[in-house]
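Curious: can you check?
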Amino acid sequence: MTKASPQEIQHILSEEIGQVFKKIELENIEVSMPIDGKGARILVRVEKGARDAVPDEITIEVGDRILEVPLEVSETYEPYSAQED
């Protein structure tokens, strides 16, 4: 296995996102790629109290390669609600 590069994480988030959701197994999450210089990873926003349900990393199959994808967890998920004027 190989650690995913920033370009591979971008590809995973745009083309392999179903695998990400399947591996995390939580319904109320948001995922993104931080660009803060702390390394290639996926940021997973979860509801308060759900942090322990997210693994430290997942493996994603891209073509004939298996990539290790580190996950960072933040308990800052809030459901979207449309505001009326």
About this structure: The helical segments are 6-15, 17-24. The beta strands are 2-3, 29-32, 42-46, 57-62, 65-74. The first strand starts at residue 2 and ends at 3.
